[in-house]
Amino acid sequence: MTQHRGSRALRIGAIAIPVAGALILAGCSGSSSGGTSSAANTNEFSLTYATSNNVESPFEVLVKEYEKANPDVKITLNPQPNDTYGDTLRTQLQAGNASDVLETEAGSGQTRSVIPLAQAGFLAPLDDAATALIPAGTESLFGIDGTTYGLPLTISYAGIVYNEVAAKAAGITEFAKDWTTLKSQCQSAAAAGKTLFVLAGSTVPNAGITASIIAATRVYAETPDWNQQRLDNKVTFADSQGWKDTLQTVKDMYDAGCFQAGAEGAGFDAITTGMSTGANVGFFGPLGSATELQKAAPDQKFVAQSFPPATSKDKAYGVASPTYSLAINKASKNSVAAAAFLDWIAQPAQAGIFADAAGSLPISGLSDLDLSTTIYSAVADELNNGDYTPLANTNWPNASVYDALATGVQGLLTGQSTVDSVLASMDTAWDQ
User: What is residue 223's three-state secondary structure?
Assistant: First the structure.
């Protein structure tokens, strides 16, 4: 272990929300999780995960708790940069030098996603304890033909990570509820020497999630089953007014000065620096990032906001879905130790550790939570009423579609792409 334990300044546990739903589901435990039968060592394994900054990762918190409970186990951590994590993971798996336990994502829309990795033969089957944690209706995001390959960890809310201290300094007392007000707030932030949003435009994860969060209001609020319609070849990206509006909104925000100068070439360090210093009011991403930022900048105050709809008459709509998951490398020589770690995570006593550290939500029982006094208070109605969609690419057929979206956003910022050309490239990637 290379980092010291960070203080948990902003915790799910501290905001008094129960993890009862997750505990009930976790109560069913089967035999030891799957893996190869040639496990060489039951007392050590390695774990790889994505990281965007030097703040203690929720995976490190999870490992420390496990090491505390199992002092005879040695765990080697292999963090990788978030912006290249998916490609790095696949390269390591193909080369045979990947870690024993792998951070993965639900569904099929990214190179790190559970389904394509399982289909490629890289992941070991998991047992009933992992299966029991999967929220009803999302089984296809973690397994194939009834076999589970990913252990879900939390429900992640993706939206605007919003710094209330920076907003107040910019003269903004309430986050925009419609597009017209949002543009006005971009001007207010600029007048105060700030920008309303900071964007890591050079990275696929941040460029892609920015467009996906906007699409919640422009596409999925009106057509929640849009992805299924695309799978059924009833719609296309190129012919979708909602997707046209999504990408046009990104371009309009850039033109209106809503992003920092040089956003198109910025990396994740721009977000960490801009948000922790209060130079920027918000950014697009998973709210778990707010927890990490709060640790690094306790004088700031980070909360969740959803991206505003086009008009105040339109429905506010968010993004919430199971995202983080863990899997076992099928080629692992330490699969017994790796499986024991996943089985430990699935036990009731551990159900809230990752959600606590990540600042995310328990894997089930979301509609029953009282979020009125939490960092989710501004989006509580959306979460409680089910006015949200899973992350857009969760069940897209391959990672190339998301890559086309992200690189398309980058092209919009640099002027090398148009809305129509980006959407056409997404359709091409979908059909390949």
Answer: coil
Q: Residue 6 has what pLDDT?
A: 30
pTM over 0.70: yes
Q: Are residues 353 and 394 located together in one domain of the fold?
A: no
Could you write out the three-class secondary structure of 240-266? Answer: CHHHHHHHHHHHHHHHCCCECCCHHHC
- Who contacts 47 (Cβ-Cβ below 8 Å, separation ≥6)? 59, 63, 75, 76, 77, 78, 99, 100, 101, 102, 103
Instruction: Please give the tally of structural domains in the chain.
Output: 2
State residue 290's pLDDT score.
84
pLDDT at res. 91: 97
Q: Which residues pair with 147 in a beta bridge?
A: 144
Quote the pLDDT of residue 41: 52
Token representation of residue 291: 């927890």
Amino acid at 134: I
Which domain range does residue 115 map to? 13-154+323-364
3 inside domain = no
Give the whole-angstrom CA distance, residue 162 versus residue 189.
13
d(CA 29, CA 133): 10
Q: Residue 89's pLDDT is what?
A: 97
Q: Which candidate, 315, 311, 268, 318, places its Cα nearest to that of 293?
A: 268
Same domain, 394 and 355: no
DSSP type of residue 185: H
Q: Which residues of the chain have pLDDT under 70?
A: 1-42, 351, 364
Say what the alpha-carbon torsion angle 374, 377, 383, 389 is, to the nearest 10 degrees. -110
220 and 259 fall within a common domain:
yes
In this structure, what CATH number is given to the domain that contains residue 147?
A: 3.40.190.10
Distance (Å) of CA 315 to CA 272, 298, 370, 393:
31, 33, 21, 21
Cβ atoms of residues 170 and 189 within 8 Å: yes
- Same domain, residue pair 162 and 284: yes
